[in-house]
Amino acid sequence: MKATVRIMLHDNVLDPQGKAIRHALETLGFSGVERVRQGKLITLELAETDPGKARQRVREMCEKLLANTVIESYEIDIAEQS
Amino acid sequence: MKATVRIMLHDNVLDPQGKAIRHALETLGFSGVERVRQGKLITLELAETDPGKARQRVREMCEKLLANTVIESYEIDIAEQS
């Protein structure tokens, strides 16, 4: 079973990486980019076969390791492997 | 208009960050994690209002700056802002 975790900084937290990307895009001539935010994308392949249990497990991983919940929020997608 | 770009290393490229996460999860007692890959998630707010043009523009940004297409692949989602 495959899980995808999207981790982004909270909307009110400064994102210097995003700002740097926005600035670089502008320098390259890409105008009209109003805001850029950068986050993390983590894919996990799990031995677990029950989607509910897998989601619960990944939520624990996020709380303990993957995300810093003080400044980041996370979303979890669980997909059965094709 | 909002664009989301998901950037992942090609499947055959080594991902030391992913390996480190997998190892850390194991150390924390999370067994059954077979593989972890870490990528980037970039959200862009664009002044462009035409979805087709926005996608084309973001594709150019990926090719020129956001992704290293030698080792990374990217996917683009375009969503009208609510």
Set down the secondary structure blueprint:
Two copies of one chain form a homodimer.
Chain A: E1 2-9, H1 16-27, E2 33-46, H2 51-66, E3 72-79
Antiparallel strand pairs in A: 1-2, 1-3
Structure at a glance:
The structure is a homodimer of 82-residue chains. Chain A has helices at 16-27, 51-66; strands at residues 2-9, 33-46, 72-79. The first copy, chain A, is α+β, with helices and mostly antiparallel strands and 82 residues long.
Structural features:
homodimer, 82 residues, alpha+beta, Mth169, Chain: A, three-stranded antiparallel sheet, 2 helices, 3 strands
Task: Give structural notes.
The structure is a homodimer of 82-residue chains. The first copy, chain A, is built from 2 helices and 3 strands, in the order βαβαβ. Chain A is of the alpha+beta class and 82 residues long. Chain A has a single domain (2-79), classed as Mth169, Chain: A, CATH 3.30.1280.10. In chain A, strands 2-1-3 form a 3-stranded antiparallel beta sheet. The longest helix of chain A has 16 residues, at 51-66. The model of chain A has no long low-confidence stretch (mean pLDDT 96). Chain A binds chain B through residues 6-8, 18, 21, 24-25, 28, 30-48, 57, 60-61, 64-66, and chain B through 6-8, 18, 21, 24-25, 28, 30-48, 57, 60-61, 64-66. Strand 2 of chain A pairs antiparallel with strand 2 of chain B, so a sheet runs across the interface.
